[in-house]
Amino acid sequence: MSRVTQPWQLLGVILAGVLASHQHAAIEYLREENRVLKEQLGGKRLRLNNSQRRRLAAKGKLLGRRALSEVCTIVTPDTILRWHRELIARKYDSSKSGRTGRPRTMREIRRLVVRLARENPNWGYLRLEGAMGDLGHRVKRTTIANILREHGLDPAPQRHMPWSTFLKAHWHTLAATDFFTAEAWTPRGLTRFHVLFVMDLKTRKIQIVGVTDRPSGEWVVRVTRGLIDGFDGFLRKHTHLIHDRDPLFTEGFASLLKSCGIEPTKLPPRSPNMNAHAERFVGSIRSECLDQMIIFGEKHLRHVLSEYAKHYHEERPHQGLGNRRIDPTHEPETGAVSCRERLGGLLRYYHRIAA
Question: CA-to-CA distance for 170 and 326, rounded, in angstroms?
Answer without folding.
Answer: 19
